[in-house]
Every structure is written in C-alpha cells, then in structure tokens.
Amino acid sequence: MQSNVKFAELNDLLSRLCDGEMDRPDWDRLETLLLDDPTSQDYYRRFVVLDVDLAWRAGGCSADLQFGPTAHETENEDRGAGDQRRGMAGSPAIDLPVGAAVEPPSGQWLRTPNPEPPFPTLSTTNYPPPATPFVGSWAFSCMVSAVIMGVMLLVFWAMKVTPHQHIAEAPSQSVPSDDRPEMVFVGRITGMVDVKWSDDPRYLPPPRFAHVPLGREYRLDAGLLEITYDSGAKVILQGPCTYKVESTAGGYLALGKLTALVEKRGGKGSRSKVQGSRSKAEPSSFILHPSSLFSVRTPTAIVTDLGTEFGVEVDENGGCEVHLIQGKVLARRIGSTGLPNGEVELSSSEDAVRFDPDQATPVFISPAPERFLSMRAGLKRKRRSQWPIGDKTMVAWVSLANLTQQGVGVISIENYWTNGFDGIDFAELAPRKWMAASNSYLRTQRDQSQYPDETAGPEQFVQIAIVYDQTQITIYRDGKVYAEYKTDSRQTFSNSSVVLMGKRCMERPWRIPPHYTPTLAGKIEEARLYDVALSPEMIAALKPNQSSPIDPVCQWTFEDGTTRDSMGCFSPGELRGAAHIADGKLILDGEDSYLLIPSRLKQDANSSAEADAPGKPAGKKEKEG
To answer: Which residues partner with 181 through β-bridges?
Structure first.
C-alpha cells in the first residue's frame, strides 16, 4: 500500500516536472523519493522517456526511443560494462544519471513554462528534432506529387487504346481490336479500253492488270473496264460509273449501266460476269445470295443471277432498271430499312423491271437489251493501238512436224532498219526447247538447262506465248509458265516493222558472208500480237478462233484461206517458197518456206522488188555491191 502511495506521489511530481510547474519543495521531495530507491529510479526513467517520445510524435516524427534495462536487470549485467545501458534490437540506450535528473538546474530554467527540449539532460538520439513538421512541408508535397504521377503513368501504360485507323477499317466487331484486317484479293483487272478515270484528286486509279482487293472502288468517267473474279465472274464497267467490290461474289453498283452473264458449270454452282455504274451515296452493305451465286447490289435493289445474262442501270436518283437478255434473274427491292420487301423473277428476254426509291413495288417496263454491252462479244477495243509498241504479248498455236529441227522461228516482229527483233523460236540454243529469240540474244536467256523439253507429236498443236512486261520476260506453254527471267534490254517497234512466220528473222543476202536462217517445218493455226503484257489468266483463257477480252494489234486466223490481218494493221502477207494455207492453217515444209507480212506503210509496188531481198531498202544492194 505504501508502495502505491509512493508511486502516486512520484507520478504527480513527474507530471509537474514535464509540464514545467516544479518549485523548490517539489524538487527536494523528488530527490528524496529517488535517492537510494532503484525501483523509483526505473519508474522515473521510463516516465520521462515516454514523455519525450510523445513530444516527438506530436511534431510529426518518432524518436523511436528504447527503454534501458531495469534495476534488477542491471544487477545481472557484467560489471565490466560500467554504467552503459543497451536498448533492444540495436537501438541506442538511454543513459539517465539519477543525480543529474533530480538536481534542479540553476538560473531562469525553473521559471520557463515550456522548455525546448523539456529535458536537456536526456540524450535520446543523435539527430535534433525538426524545426518544422515534415507533414505539410515542401519535401513531403514533392514526394506525394511524384507518387501520384507515377501511378498515373502506370495506369496509362496498362491501358490499350485502339488507333482511329483501325476503328475506320475494321470490317466487323468480331475482329479483335488489336488485329488490323489483311488485304484480300478477289480477282484482277483483265481489260481496259479508252478508260478515263475520275478527276477527283483524292482518287488513286489502279494500274492495268492490277489485282482487285476486297473493298476497292472503281470510278470511271468514260471507257470500259473488265474485272475477272477468281470465282470466274467477270465485271465490265461502262463509264461513267462507280463500282465497289464488296465480296468474292458481288459488288455495289451505284450509278450507270451494268451487264451480267452467269454460266452454269457442271452443277457446281454458277459463274457470272457483270458490268457496272456509279452512285452518290452508298447505303450499308446487304447482299442476299448463296455463296455460289453472283449478286449485284444497287441503292434500290439486289439482283442475283440464276444462270443469266442481264443488264442493270442506275440513275442519279437511285432508281434501278433490270433488263434480262437471256436465262433467269431474281431482283429484290430494298426498302427504307435496307431489307428486301419486293421480289421479281425475270425468265424471258422480253422481261424488264424498274425499282424506284419512292415506290413500294417494282414496275415492269419495255426491255432494251441493246443498251448494254454484250458479255459474249467480249471487251472490244474501240481504237487502234498506239505505236511504237514496247510492252507486248506474242501468241501462236503451232504443231511441229519433227522435234529435231533447230533454230526455227514461229512468229517474230522486226525493225528492219535497226535489225532489232523479238520472236518465238524453237531449239536455237538448246534442242527441243522453246525460247524468246532476239537480235544478238540481247533479250534471250542463254542458260536453258531448266527449260522442259518439247514432247508434242506432229499433229498436236500447242499454245506458245511470250509476254514482254518492261524488262520481265515470261514464256507460257498451253497457259502455264514455261520460263521467266529479267533482262537489261528492251526493244520497241515502230509502225514500219515487218512480221515473219516460219523464220527467225530477215535475211541479209548482201552481207559477207551471207546470213541465212532455217525455216519451220510444221503448221501454224493462228498467230496474234498484243500491244500489252497480258496477265496469266488472260493467257490461259485464249483460244484459237475465239475473241479475247482485249483485241490484239494484229491477228492471223487463216480461216478465209488468205494471209489477211483481221485487225487491219498490216497489209496482206506474202507466201514464200512452198508455204500455203489449207484447212485454216499455214503449212510450212521447212524448205525455205515462210510468210512475210510487210507493214501497211509499204506500198504494194514494193512487194515485187523485195521478193529477191526481203526487207532490203531500195538502192542498198547496188551501194554495197
């Protein structure tokens, strides 16, 4: 009980000491209680340490003070440690000499109400307390700002932002936002005639024979453009028109004319050919058709082929006319909601129907199939080729009497004055191999070890074609690539060039020594020269005695028993030696027989003069002797 009274009194004195309210009698009483009483001394020491720690915490910092050992713990200490006290976990110990604590300071300190620090005799840390609180200080504000900024940067880095280009080009929501759609090609441009592209400076016209990507729009102010889909469908655009490729089996026709032809193929579906026009506005894509049918969408109707040749025309207001040429077609009206709500099936060439935006039902009209280009007639050239010719395609259907002949030409074109020529040749540098002949072999690949050997029999006709596209030369046999390579040379031909069949090039008998070339033994069914580099698809589609999407510059069919150029570019040819025409074919015996075709610029009077020296200019022989 006495101990509790003592600690109560001691606690009161220590409270007054910390508050700065001690007077002289209080100091004397405190010294009496602490003198020779280890328990009271321990209590005093712990009390003042706790008070100092609370004062530091109130200022925003923690003194992290540790209590020293009690009196009982001190008795168990090694005597060699002296009066040194150790805290816990390596914390600095608090040395509290009792005499210093109970001896009152001198001077005015006793009358100071709030001394700073309250107990200058206590050594609690090596660092003085801060002059201002850390919380709310400039350093604390900078630290908080840096933390906030770091968190914001981390959040923005983790977020996935979709680029605006992807949002504009994404085909559907089913495509992941981080995957841009790949460009899909559905066909090729296989013909152009007098095309005038839109003068819109933002429109980029495609090159001739370019691939047709999905979503590509074609704008023509004039002319004809043919697109061949990989599925076999053909689209001919008649300018002015705008046509957009919407799928592998359809497109959007917005304004102008359209013709479509669909041909059944052994019950495996159908194939269609279409011709299109142009529009001001394009509603959302909506094509109703099975995958095997070809459909044309317009602002007011969807036209689906059913084994059909038909024409479509769209006017400026979006009105659509469908004219059946032959077969059957299904036309469905598109209402204001974009869904078909009117359907008409045309099954006679006398049928034609019109869809208007302001009318709910279609109206039958008088048919006018003559207004539409006939797909069966093909894409015809409406002008003659422009000379000189650079890029070109040479095609011939030929049968060889034997495979042992060497250095014989099938067809070649030659500038007589410069001696530059290009042609189709057989077995000149390697036996049984076709090659692209040229003057001094400038455009000929000399290493022909990889060329396949010819194996056709005497009565078997093969198609040989050579395409000259800038410096790229490709040889085809029966529509398949036979050889291809690049060259550094490129030859152009003027309108004074001559054409030879059965001979590699013109002979120059006035040369010393004379230069003679062997002639072909075999038959030529047909030969053509195009002034463009035909695509592989067009080469494979060529057939003798059948028109092609693009007319050649010159064509010799021999069907009428003459050497006439059916395109009218060259004068009738001259048969030399035993060469003759029979059964629509040019017959050559290999004994100096060939066909010479002079340019239309040469006068008929020169033909007899050139008989002795083919292609020799007047006066040349006399001058050179």
So the answer is: none
Does residue 425 contact residue 445 with C-beta atoms inside 8 Å? no
CB count within 10 Å of CB 610 equals: 18
Burial 1-16 (b: 16+ CB within 10 A, else e): eeeeeeeeebeebbee
Close Cβ partners of 310 (under 8 Å, ≥ 6 residues apart): 259, 260, 303, 322, 323, 324, 325, 327, 329, 346
Instruction: Provide the greatest CA pair distance for the chain.
Output: 158
Q: How confident is the model at residue 48 (pLDDT cuts 50, 70, 90)?
A: confident
Residue 466 burial class via C-beta count within 10 angstroms: exposed 0-12, middle 13-18, buried 19 and up? buried
Provide the total of helices (H) and of strands (E) in the chain, helices listed first. Answer: 10, 28
pLDDT tens digits for range 466-521: 999 989 999 999 999 999 999 998 899 887 789 999 999 887 655 555 567 899 99
- What are the strands of the beta sheet with 420-426, ordered from one edge? 434-438, 420-426, 408-415, 498-501, 594-597, 574-576
**Per-residue pLDDT tens digits for 263-285:** 654 443 333 344 444 333 344 33
Sign of CA dihedral 120, 121, 123, 124: negative
pLDDT of residue 618: 37
Q: Mind listing the pLDDT tens digit for each residue in 73-129?
A: 444 444 444 444 433 333 344 444 444 444 444 433 333 344 444 444 444 444 455
Q: How far is CA 408 from the centre of its chain?
A: 46
Name the pLDDT band for 222 (thresholds 50, 70, 90). Answer: confident
Sequence-distant (≥ 6) Cβ neighbours of residue 319 within 8 angstroms: 300, 354, 355, 356, 357
What does the alpha-carbon distance between residue 431 and residue 464 come to, in Å, rounded to a whole number?
A: 16
Half-sphere exposure of 56 (CA within 13 A, CB side): 18
Beta-ladder partners of 597: 499
Burial of 551 (0-12, 13-18, 19+ CB in 10 A): buried
The strand pairing partners of 333, in sequence order, are 301, 342
Contact call for residues 443 and 436 (beta carbons, < 8 A): yes
Residue 321, strand partner residues: 313, 354
Q: Which residues contact 562 (CB under 8 A, 6 or more apart)?
A: 572, 581
What percentage of the chain reaches a pLDDT higher than 70?
Answer: 68
Which residue in this structure is represented by tokens 């030529």?
A: 524
Selection from 90, 100, 77 nearest residue 31 by Cα: 100
- The Cα 339–Cα 279 span in angstroms is 19
CA distance 199 to 197: 6
By C-alpha distance, which of 131, 210, 192 is closest to 550?
192
Name every residue whose Cβ is closer than 8 Å to that of residue 590 and which is 6 or more positions away in sequence.
401, 405, 408, 518, 519, 520, 521, 522
Q: What is the pLDDT of residue 340?
A: 60
pLDDT for 569-617, tens place per residue? Answer: 888 899 999 999 999 999 999 998 999 998 765 433 343 334 334 433 3
**pLDDT mean across residues, the chain:** 74
| More confident site: 596 or 306 | 596
- For residues 159-192, one letter each, b for 16 or more C-beta atoms within 10 angstroms of the residue's C-beta and e for the rest, the string is eeeeeeeeeeebeeeeeeeeeeeeeeebbbbbbb
